Amino acid sequence: MNTETEMKELVRQKYSEIALQDKETNQSSCCGSGCCSDEVYNIMSEDYTSMKGYNADADLGLGCGLPTQFAKIKKGDVVIDLGSGAGNDCFIARAETGETGKVIGIDFTTAMIDKARANAEKLGFHNVEFRQGDIEKMPVTSNIADVIVSNCVLNLVPNKDGVFKEIFRALKPGGHFSISDIVLIGDLPEKIRKTAEMYSGCVSGAIQKQTYMELIELNGFKNITIQKEKAIVVPDDILINYLSAEEIEQFKKSGTGIFSITVFAEKKAEACCAPGCCSN
Fold first, then answer.
1. Coil, helix or strand at residue 155
2. Which of 87, 147, 254, 277 would you label with 73, given CA atoms 20 to 30 Å apart?
3. For residues 198 and 18, what is the distance between their CA atoms, to the nearest angstrom?
4. Phi/psi of residue 116, each to 5°?
5. pLDDT, average across residues 41-57
6. Confidence band (pLDDT; 50, 70, 90) for 10?
7. CA 36, CA 134: separation in Å to the nearest integer?
8. How far is Cα 263 from Cα 226, in angstroms, rounded to an integer?
9. What per-residue confidence (pLDDT) applies to 33?
């Protein structure tokens, strides 16, 4: 797993498998990574079931937050969901934007796109569209979205800076994003960082929290806010697959933290210079 291409192919293969599994199987596999543990059920995913628009068939239990809950979606908004999976966040976003809005889900896994489209068809949602593509090169025009959401996906992308550049391009001036993701404070043990399974399981692909926040600012976003943060504890019966008992103890004492954060940021509105708009 030395190149970006290899990392992407790993994620594509793993999440193609996940698309064919049920939620219970996925939730017991460390964000779908295959590192099984009875204790993993709640370490990342959060409960969507009480949210308006929730559809059980679209919930594979793969998220690490509730970005649509914090996304300030309004009626008529155009919303893009990055890494849309089976459509869970898209359908919740649709409940907020209504029939006058539009929701576009982007995922680069064919099996996920097929599952999401089948769910949308079954629900009769004609203003929810799923497009296959890379979120580093979104299949959308510039300045199209009022809101962009994403749930535990950017940590799976090697070029995170490229994704934030694309988010900025796709948002309308004055638009905003709400993204849930995994970040680090401190360094993961090398055995975890270099393990493919922990990469596709949303952990070893995470970057430092400070670096993550700086990337957002460097790409021109304003009013950057952490809307929610929670610590993620990886159970011992997962860690034992990669570390010795002594190394696990050292890891726990190292001060390294794994966190789920939900981040909000805005693309600054352009100054109005149309005739009659600006004061002389």
1. helix
2. 277
3. 15
4. -65, -45
5. 78
6. low
7. 28
8. 5
9. 40
DSSP 8-state secondary structure symbol assigned to residue 28: T
Which residue, chain included where needed, has tokens 């949303």? 202
Q: What residues contact 75, with CB distance under 8 A and at least 6 apart?
A: 96, 97, 98, 100, 101
Q: Is the pLDDT of residue 277 over 70?
A: no
- pTM (predicted TM-score): 0.85
Tell me if 148 sits within 8 A of 80, measured CB to CB.
Answer: yes
Contact 44, 181 (CB under 8 A): no
Out of 26-40, 82-96, 179-193, 223-237, give the one with best mean pLDDT.
82-96
Structure tokens at 228: 């929610």
What is the Cα–Cα distance from 156 to 83, expressed in whole angstroms? 10
DSSP strand pairing (207-208 vs 145-151): unpaired
Which structural domains are found in the chain, ordered by start? 4-267 (3.40.50.150)
Instruction: Please name the residue that has the structure tokens 């995170």.
Output: 160
**Tell me: the pLDDT tens digits for 108-154?**
999 999 999 999 999 999 999 999 999 999 999 999 999 999 998 99
CA angle 33, 183, 82 (to 5 degrees): 70
Single-letter code of the amino acid located at 256: T
**Alpha helix positions (H), the chain:** 4-19, 23-27, 67-70, 88-97, 110-123, 160-170, 190-193, 196-200, 209-218, 236-239, 245-253
Between the CA of residue 157 and those of 15, 118, 124, what are the distances in Å? 13, 26, 32
- CB burial string 64-85: b at 16+ within 10 A, e below: bbbbbbbbebeeebbbbbbbbb
Instruction: Look at residue 221 and give its three-state secondary structure.
Output: strand
Q: What's the CA angle centered on 159, arms 229 and 134, to 5 degrees? A: 100
